[in-house]
Please model this.
Amino acid sequence: MAARKRNSLGEIIISDEVLATLAGISAMECYGIVGMAAKRPTDGLVELLGLENLSRGVKVHTQDNEIYINLYIIVEYGISIATVAKNVMETVKYNIENFTGMSVKRVDINVEGVRV
Model:
């Protein structure tokens, strides 16, 4: 699916992949995030993704022009996970709403690992 927005000139369609990339970039800007994580379905292992694969650690679902985001992150050791997660939620929500003009209904954080 994709997010849709209408104005007087026509319709704007933003794909879930674009939203996922925006969310991944926004998350990586936050202090305490080492990287995005992706699980390999075959063996259940979590791998740290580089900057070229930011959207793989993000799942986006759009419904009735509301955006739902799941982020899979790896945090830095020694930093409060709750504080980092809250910061990521607020930053991702703000940036997506600011860039697209659409409502982000929910941002869920899944901490997949801790790195030193």
